[in-house]
Records
---
Amino acid sequence: MHLSNHQLRSYLDGELENDHLPACAECQSRLNTIRLQRDRVADSLNSLSPTKEIALRNALTRFTNYQLRKENETMLTKIFAPKFRPLWIGATAIALAMIMLSFSPAREAFSAFLALFRVQQVAVVPFNPANVPTYFNNRDQKMDRFMSEAAKTEKNGEPKSAANAAEAASVAGFSVRLPSAITSSPKISIQPSARTTAVIDLAKINAMLDAAAIKDVKLPANLNGATITIDVPKSVTATYDCPEPNPDRRPSSDEMQKCVALTQMPSPVVTSNPSNIDPKPLGEAFLRVLGLSASEAKDFSNRIDWSTTLVIPVPTTDATSKDVTVDGVKGTLVTQTNRKQYVVIWLKNGVMYGLMGYGDEAKATGIANSLK
Amino acid sequence: MKRMNAIPKSVNATRESIREAEFESVFLEHWSRLYGIIFRVVGDQAEAEDIALETFWRLWTHNPPQKNLGGWLYRVAINLGYNALRSRQRRAVYEEKSRPDPDSDPEAQIESDEQRSRVQQILKGMPTRDSQLLILKHSGLSYKEIAETLGVSVNSIGSLLLRAEQEFIKRYESNS
């Protein structure tokens, strides 16, 4: 029995065995035609073949490099130990609105439905992990699912590299500054912008607070169904003297001592629909999720302007924080107690900066003050 | 009282070493072909490398099922490649990214670039599955691997391939 054309095609690739074919002139003729077609396409597709290939071992080294870069990607989140992620996830349902803040009535003139703000300062709220409600301190995949349902994030593109500040600025779309106090050359990467959208489900948030035994927080009804959109612009990270990854071993803490990382990006922009949302009750609920008492939460809440402030929680068992003056503005220095690792965060001219490294306050502020 | 589920650090370290060794084995087995597939899609060495690294990063972080691991890898790779292609603003960006080999004959290089661009355009105009099929086949994957990557029956590959090649030739001829 003659073979069909697709059977001949499979035969050509050695994917089909057949005894009829060698003795059949008709099948042989069709096979030749199909072979010519295959070879013609193969010839054309050969033009797409890579002209150079890196050695396998080099590829593996590059992967280790990539792995380290990805793990260090969000420099600002380094101040949060992984074990607090469930806390963040639980709190972010509220935190989305927390950083959203309130909107000046004057801005409503721009739109009947949208309000707009940009982060203008950063405030650190220290918290004791031992006081965090157990509900939020357990690794619980339900939280992950809850958050993945509550908020959707879209990234716009993939990370890119740059050779210098000017090239990074061209890609990122804002003026990039680097520390002159460090003489070695940086490795510069640009992270893509991202948009996070969340629709507030008040019933879910109230249920979560109830489960965490936070029963004295009353959130306004008009929060329900509100849509919050957070646009995070492209960010630029420059690393200095960070050890080259070795596929056979991880870098030692001695090798990490010289490593410095600086991340910068324009302040995130938040819009909401509707615009008349009061962020203060949400902010206080967020502080309660962190384990602050009702009076502590109210006290902190009254000291900041929720309409312009990004609040970052810092666990007191692992770190201390203080206000410092860097780059001509007020900043926050967070020091991780055991490893003498520091993070300095500040805002200047609408750009947020985060500097991380090892050393004391003088070293940290010296680097931050040398940005050009 | 010691927690019943406490795991000694040494055991965790051993598990991590085993996981890393297994990952390295998969990486070394699949890197070349995976990179070749992506390069055929995007046409740029640096971009292909980034996408290949991202693919293996996802393997490392997602820990997919071991069955049909190759199919999973190539599927992620080719989808990332096509996403990268779609996100390019203009075709001219792709043409600009074709960097000439400094050691090659300039005229031959131009001809090679033009041919590559032409083939890319034809593939871009074809149904996605057909162009993916052609790229996977000509990257050296077997019918079984192609079927696992595309999520189709292995028995259908011969038929799909035949149609895709005929379509390619038809477009190539009408393009000249």
Note: Chain B has one domain: 12-175.
---
Amino acid sequence: MSLYSRFQAEFNSVLSDTTRDPLPIAILCKSLYIFLFVKIIFLWPVLSDSDRYFPFEFRSLIHHILYAPIKLAQVDLRVFLISILILLLLAVILKVNYVTSVLIFWLSFNVSRFAYPLANGSDYVLNLFLFLSIFLSVTPVFKSKALREKQFIISNFAFLFCKIQLALIYVLSGFDKLTSPAWQSGDAIYSIVNLEFFMNPHLTIPESKTLYVVIAWIVILFELSFPVLIWFKRLRIYALAAGIIFHIAIIFMLSLPDFGVVMILLYSLFIPSRINRAAYASSLR
Amino acid sequence: MKERLTLVLFWALVLHVLIAVTFIIEPPFLRGNRLAIVYKKYLLPGPFFKDSQIIDNHSLILSWKINGAWGVPINVSNEDFARYHARLNPSDLYRGRLSYMLLLKLAKADSSVSSFKNKRGFNQLKQFLYDHYVPDEADSVSVRIINNQAENFMVRTDSVYITFAR
């Protein structure tokens, strides 16, 4: 059997699995919904100022359709935000389904555009995975067996696609750093340490070129090895642990809580079902 | 039918990975290409901490004059950031980002005072300062916009002073 045939057979069996555990998808989607809920709560006090100094402008017919919820936000911000929060609460309680997934993605995308001066990498990552989560859903389920099978195939494909996309995000960042002279020499770490509005003022990093080079290469190696190691069952746990440490360091050192948290939440894509189930059961106790 | 769908999805995935790898390697003909920008923004976010994005660091020092006396200058850009680290409320971080974005609209190391005053963003920044910091009884306002460039293991500082009537 050729490598191609084996690879395709494995791919077919992953996609055709209609008995897969729905819990990982529920945990992924609902954790993203809770993240968005909390993010909106913290954005709320700043959004009216953001709209005042950076008002969103509707420039075309597509804008009027795509960003229709922003019109409501511009008329009454409180109604807009409360509506989203209620929807998110419902989505956390209900089964993951097409209707809430589509609505949440659309509204989250609108929140990001409405608050674009406040947006960072976490918003792009969140919106990408909220978009993909639309295809993860299998509720409501089709009555016809043939259609139901296709529904599961698309859902399984979307789950695999999410994993690959997460890996590609690391490859992109790692490759960019690998080819950057500033990262190779450690100069980029010097620049980051001097970013007054990112670096935690309670931390002091000794001024040492050697240290900067070491940190830069640890980051490069992590970002390039994570997307490879994560596919090997025996190494996955170590890759995930390294990733969690990496993102917690970003949260505390570089004052990017939302980015670090959303990346850690996405790791649930790679956590085996039995661990997800045990964690879920203990959270209900 | 099921087999055909999985085959289509298989090749769609292969194609997607090939396209993504092309955008990651970014051959010269794709640099600055609109499709590449949109793809990287929405489908493949990143790269994060790109070297060109971490060099410049701006700050704004504000003071105002009441009854002929200038007050103690405050670092507007730093206020919310320091508050975030004191009480760990992300709203402070977002507020700081908003003022930083207003500043970013203006800040360029080689800008002259006259070009600053003519920029559209200057009126927005002035309005922001009036709304949040400068009291009504102030008759003059002074801002110092500082640009620190940390590159090649050294920091280069440029600044522009602007004084205007309230």
Note: The longest strand of chain B covers residues 140-151.
